[in-house]
Amino acid sequence: MDGGTSVTTPPSVSVAEHALFLDVDGTLLDIADTPDAVAASAELCAVLKRLEPRLSGALALVSGRPIADIDAIFTPLRLAVAGLHGLERRDAAHHIHHARSDGGLDDIKATLQTFVEGHDGALLEDKRVSLALHYRQAPGAEADARELAQSLIAERDDLHMLAGKMVFEIKPIHVDKGVAIDRFMEEPPFAGRIPIFVGDDVTDEDGFSAVNARDGVSIRVGPRTQTNARHRIVNVRSVIEWLANIM
Ligand SMILES: [Mg+2]
Q1: How many domains does the chain have?
Q2: Which residues, at least 6 apart from 162, have a Cβ–Cβ distance to it below 8 Å?
């Protein structure tokens, strides 16, 4: 961690170039005594509602709460959101993506098994921690195998696919707020923009690292502390004022 470079001036935001990722509790909302006692103010909802179209939809909430909680807090807004630190995610097109904390592959294995039984020469290798679909002996099955493997991971944010020599391998990855931001950044309307992430807590550090790796802007809310974030905003009130002033 690198607390030494943190600066206190919030960066200027270009609505044409940036994508905005915002933690919720402690960033947009003051921490409540009981977590279910919080609700977004009309002012905050109005700011977010105005910002989303100005950013061409490149605005997402990234929270430890479930998506259902977030929707209740920000009702009637339905924003792109990662909930449960990325274990569930609603993209900008409102498609839901899930990750499993155990990275389980059983359901995917069953589908791949059915595929190899229907394609002579195709072979499924169960490596315990990953699944490899080989088509060396079934080169005509490549397109179908690729399409199947991609469709199986499309809604699972905890899996990725590696294309090897005549093989597609599906592997789990650990999901955190940084991975959730990376997933958004692979999709429209986020792709091609510069990410900004604002958070206040230890679980936001993965998000700061993810945006730093993309030459983005990392902002930690609160008093000076050891952090990967390169900018600082002093409190929730200042975050909302900063957002309200984005032209
Ligand atoms: Mg927070």
Answers
A1: 2
A2: 168, 169, 171
* Mean per-residue pLDDT over the chain, rounded: 93
Q: What is the pTM of this model?
A: 0.87
Query: Is 23 an annotated catalytic residue?
Result: yes
The position carrying tokens 């902002």 is 219
- Is position 168 within any domain? yes
Residue 150 belongs to a domain with what CATH number?
3.30.70.1020
Distance 52 CA to ligand 1 centre (A): 20
Look-up: residue for tokens 């974030």?
Answer: 229
What's the 44 CA to ligand 1 centre distance in angstroms?
Answer: 16
Neighbours of ion ligand 1 (CB under 5 A): 23, 25-26, 200-201
| Cα–Cα nearest to 13, from 241, 206, 173 | 241
pLDDT of 2 over the 80 cut: no
The rounded distance, in Å, linking the Cα atoms of 37 and 154 is: 35
